[in-house]
Amino acid sequence: MHSIEQLALGQLQGIKRLQLAEGLTQFPQEIFSLANSLEVLDLSDNKLSELPDNLSDLHQLKILFLTNNCFESVPLVLAQCPKLEMISFKSNNLKHLPENALPVNTRWLILTDNNLVSLPEDMGRLLRLQKLALAGNKLTCLPESMAKCRNLELARLSANGFKSLPDWLFQLPRLSWLAVDGCPLTPQQDLAEKARKDVGSMPCVSLDDIELKEVIGQGASGVIYRAKWLNQPLELMATPADIAVKIFKGEVTSDGYPKDELANCLQAGQHSNLIKVIAQLKQAGESGLVMELIPSHYQNLGLPPSMDTCTRDTFSDESQFELQTILLTLKQMASGLTHLHQNQISHGDIYAHNTMYSANAEILFGDFGAATNLRQLPLLQREAMEAIEVRALGCLIEDLLEHCLQRPTDAEQTVLAELLQLKLACLQPNLGFRPRFKEVDAQLLKLLKLLEIEICQNAEPLNM
């Protein structure tokens, strides 16, 4: 965190990233002294409602965070910023997004938790748009021009007023991570009634019954703590005393409503590769999930996307995986995703950073914050949603292969070539040509067996 005083004294000359949170009601003119270097400007958690007309003088600016301010309209001056590509107005009071307000270079747009009732028709000119966060608004339709946004890869449309969604959305060739729950997509009362009944069947506990310990994870929808029962409910006496507790961050998150996350967890059912939810946390001001604690020998498969990678995971420099480990990981993912779609749930967030793995390549994944109950969608859109998620798995294959141990043996080359072909099939721009998860699962099992045969055949004979 920086200060206005540091700016005024010239102590921040040459910096690329500036963060100010001092209850500002006006844009500090001192910021323009950084025009030749400033690339990231974070003015979140202030009281701003306007930007200066000469904002484009910050000619190196690429990223602008204005989360939790008082804007009611997106300022037109943004479109004049020559390099601006990532913009956040999360949790303001936006009612209006004017035509021609956004820079044509916009790649990542965050408008979560506002009061937008419509988007401008010129959204279709944002041809570089990859990531779009619109959850928690009052939108009822998307501009038809957005069918031109063919580079869109991640879209969060949950917690809006959509009664239906356009077919072109589900046919975008690069779309891989889509969340649309929490919208009045279906008039079927039995669906809502079933969700309420399922949630009601989950044991309810209070924070008074739990001792929270250290934070072990954090995502868009909540913070996860290692915890321990102080007063274990009778119906859970057979479960371990050590647990994990996810406390939701608010009424609406960047992925949607917490209540939908709980309902989708329940509908997903149990699978050996899914983190098990055992209770719901409910008390004044707090809601969340109680889950089985993942054993300490598990670790994250990857790290979240960065500002540069936008939609793609990052990995530590030490991340190197054996081909067999990659295949085992992907096989379990495909099995779990087959199970989810058979239960009419899409995950919406298929990423390495949402996946835990052990030294034996056993995996667990969860985080249903971006999940969607597919029963709300017409049949063709349900099928398309599976194809969208298959592309996300294709991205994961690609990411893991980039961190495959170099110089594969001759025995591995054949299998590696087959896996590359599977990746290409999953990333196929035409959704109709992508395999289903059940087919991916079968192909990965075949490759695991092939690798075992190849290794055995190429093993050196023992000297007798």
Protein model, in words:
This protein is an alpha/beta fold and 464 residues long. Helices cover 24% and strands 16% of the residues. The strands form 4 sheets. The chain has an 8-stranded parallel sheet with strand order 1-2-3-4-5-6-7-8. It has a 6-stranded mixed sheet with strand order 9-13-14-12-11-10, with helices on one face. The protein has a 3-stranded antiparallel sheet with strand order 15-17-18, covered by helices on one side. A hairpin with a 3-residue loop joins strand 10 and strand 11. Helix 4 runs antiparallel to helix 7 (437-458) and helix 5 packs antiparallel against helix 6 (410-426). It is globular, with a radius of gyration of 24 Å. The N and C termini lie far apart (69 Å). The model has no long low-confidence stretch (mean pLDDT 92).
